[in-house]
């Protein structure tokens, strides 16, 4: 249906253009006829109430008749061309290409990268009218994806990318492999390449909130904050209870100088997951920026209590900062 509509629309456009050129071709002869027959003079006489003036000579341009003829021939030729194209277009079906939006974006929150999802079946289910081609090497492709995931978690990112590439070669519609490759590329600092991988994964399965989050992270890393915000919003459209997306939006909004909005998003993240340590830290930072020191201290302490062993160094710095804030409050600063 989409292609039929496209063909019809283009046919109408050709006929409209042909008609417009035909009208333009007729204008100069009509004007010259009106001048020579004295029509313009009669109209002027009626308006002014004077006697009818004699007809004007053939305009004031030497060779006006020839110019008018050339004009008419040129635009008649254009009208004929568009008429022919309209007839040809109506017999052919025009392919309707999907509209591709530029990935507008902007910068990524300071998140620990999530491990690539091992859900190799991350593919579109499609409707009854969607026929996906059969893939012979699905099992082998998924085995390569699993091995790539293992290498990724061990920090062997280049080797992981090689496995993901091989999985994609065997099964180009394996959305999980594209998403996993994006994470590995991002870990290697190749965020532009990562974004291309996420886009491919989302083209196959646009309802994957985790991939929208990951793409937003890479956009944030490139300093493209507004685009990252758009990605996190897309993740929340898919899954409104995605605490990671709420947290990421808070980080983006804080960096955009919108602390009140950032606080609301961080609050949503901690409401959905009270054990989300990073969200408590982000919330504390925003509260401190809003000069709500007492609330910020409470949020910092919540972060300290939830921090994992890998965040021990960060938690210690936060603990020292809290001590400084409390001392300043006691001094009335």
From TrEMBL:
The chain crosses the membrane at residues 12-35, 56-82. TPR repeats lie at residues 141-174, 175-208, 209-242, 243-276. InterPro entries: TPR-like_helical_dom_sf, TPR_rpt, Ycf3/AcsC/BcsC/TPR_MFPF. This is Tetratricopeptide repeat protein. It comes from the Bacteria. Residues 94-110, 118-128 have a biased composition (Basic and acidic residues). Residues 90-129 are annotated as: Disordered. It holds the Pfam family TPR_8. Keywords: Membrane, Repeat, TPR repeat, Transmembrane, Transmembrane helix.
């Amino acid at each position: 249906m989409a292609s039929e509509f496209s063909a019809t629309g283009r046919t109408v456009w050709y006929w409209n253009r042909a008609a417009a050129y035909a009208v333009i071709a007729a204008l100069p002869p009509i004007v010259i006829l009106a001048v020579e027959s004295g029509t313009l003079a009669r109209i002027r006489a009626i308006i002014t109430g004077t006697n009818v003036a004699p007809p004007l000579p053939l305009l004031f341009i030497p060779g006006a008749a020839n110019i008018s003829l050339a004009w008419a021939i040129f635009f008649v030729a254009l009208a004929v061309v568009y008429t022919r194209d309209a007839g040809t277009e109506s017999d052919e079906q025009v392919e309707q290409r999907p509209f591709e939006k530029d990935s507008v974006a902007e910068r990524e929150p300071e998140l620990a990268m999530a491990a690539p999802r091992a859900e190799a079946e991350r593919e579109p289910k499609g409707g009854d009218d969607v026929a996906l081609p059969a893939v012979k090497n699905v099992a082998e492709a998924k085995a390569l994806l699993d091995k790539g995931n293992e290498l990724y978690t061990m920090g062997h990112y280049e080797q992981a990318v090689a496995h993901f590439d091989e999985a994609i070669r065997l099964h180009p519609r394996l959305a999980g492999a594209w998403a996993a490759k994006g994470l590995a590329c991002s870990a290697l600092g190749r965020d532009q390449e990562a974004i291309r991988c996420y886009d491919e994964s989302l083209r196959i399965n646009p309802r994957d909130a985790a991939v929208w989050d990951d793409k937003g992270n890479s956009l944030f890393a490139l300093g493209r904050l507004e685009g990252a915000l758009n990605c996190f919003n897309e993740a929340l459209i898919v899954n409104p209870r995605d605490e990671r997306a709420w947290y990421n939006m808070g980080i983006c909004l804080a960096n955009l100088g919108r602390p009140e909005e950032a606080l609301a998003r961080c609050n949503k993240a901690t409401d959905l997951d009270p054990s989300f340590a990073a969200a408590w830290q982000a919330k504390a930072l925003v509260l401190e920026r809003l000069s709500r020191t007492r609330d910020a201290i409470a949020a910092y302490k919540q972060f300290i209590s939830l921090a994992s062993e890998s965040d021990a160094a960060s938690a210690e710095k936060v603990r020292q900062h809290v001590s400084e804030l409390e001392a300043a409050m006691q001094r009335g600063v």
